[in-house]
Amino acid sequence: MRPTIPACLSHLPVRSVLGVYVVFSVAILVGCGGEPSQSEGVLEDTRAALEKTQEVERLAVRDAVGQMFIVGMSGTDPDYYLEKMIRERNIGGVLLFGYNMKSEEQTKELTESLQRLSMATEPATPFVAVDYEGGEMQSAPWASIQPSAAEVGVRADPEESRSIAERVGRELRRGGVNTDLAPVVDTGHGAAIGSRSYGDDPAIVGRMGAAAVKGFEEAGIVSVAKHFPNHSPALEDSHVDRPRIDHDMQAVVQRDLPPFRAAIEAGVPMVMTGHLVYSAIDPDWPAGLSSAAMRLLRGELGLDGAIVTDDLAMEGAKREGTTARAAVAAVTVGADLLLIFGPPERQAAAYDAVVTGVESGDTTRADRRFCRALQEHQGSVPALRW
């Protein structure tokens, strides 16, 4: 099956020119009454143009798929593998960890290099993200040390939460970072969360998280509310297992979802899905791979921003399978952006799997995902509304 180019890609100049040429050629064939001496050459040209159009559509789909990927990197400079992911697969962004950032000056040089590489491939600003939450999660060495979310939650002052987010955001921007995978709006201090949560009261967590979203926005930073629907009740860490939460729907609505609703109402640009099963939402699939969870997030909570997965290499996502299969599943159910860390081979395999799924017609409902990924990169990255 030949891939169908998403409507949002129809502005491509080559495709437009070829489309006009094909229509004009057909008009000549009809107008000349099918005279063989004139029509045969035109028909051959038309066939060639159609073949070229199909190739352009194929390449456009590959570029659009690439824009959905945010990947990790090794070292403090773009290596051969990352440059290849940018140049050949048109990835949408990079997530930096502490081992990638040694100082503000070095990080600024790194992010400028990433920007140049990306802009040479796709004329849109890439996501340059970090995981900077305060407390135990402070990876950017030049940014000021901040208290944990738990400490901020105890004081329950939204202005403190807003002020911290704004300060951190402005400091991150000095190093060329434009996205922070924060705030954590999980309610409670369970496995893998601990002091990263604002507390056990969903109302307080919601107020603190919404204030942080506003602070990041004031600093010009893309923020990400995580880990939907709520990782805190989990007894296992989704990095190494697939937790299962058996809250009934009343508990989900009253305890787990309110902080995410508050963040969405505050205008959070993205929500990150967690790799854990909520039996009341979908007894079979973790949230990041569940169409029911996606419908809840978009329908009931009204998210019109982007849905980004947690790292698809985590055991909670792949569950004895592969990251590539998890990537295809996430795109199929409605994820807009895919986080994948680890070896370059893993990232490339996931990209190839999504492209194959689209080109074969197996990956359904993908057009909107492609359009969302591209629209997020028009102009400055913080402008994520559509």
Could you describe the 3D structure shown?
The protein has two domains: 7-55; 67-375, Glycoside hydrolase, family 3, N-terminal domain (TIM Barrel, Alpha-Beta Barrel), CATH 3.20.20.300. The chain is globular, with a radius of gyration of 23 Å. Helix content is 48%, strand content 9%. The chain contains 14 helices and ten strands. The longest helix has 31 residues, at 36-66. It is of the alpha/beta class and 386 residues long. The model is unreliable at 1-39, 49-56 and 376-386 (pLDDT under 50). The strands form two sheets. It has an eight-stranded parallel beta sheet. A two-stranded parallel sheet has the order 6-8. The chain has helices at residues 13-31, 36-66, 80-89, 104-121, 149-155, 158-174, 202-219, 249-256, 258-265, 291-300, 315-318, 323-333, 344-360, 367-375; strands at residues 69-72, 93-95, 127-130, 179-180, 222-228, 244-245, 270-273, 277-278, 306-309, 338-340. Helix 3 (80-89) links the parallel strand 1 (69-72) and strand 2 (93-95). The relative contact order is 0.11.
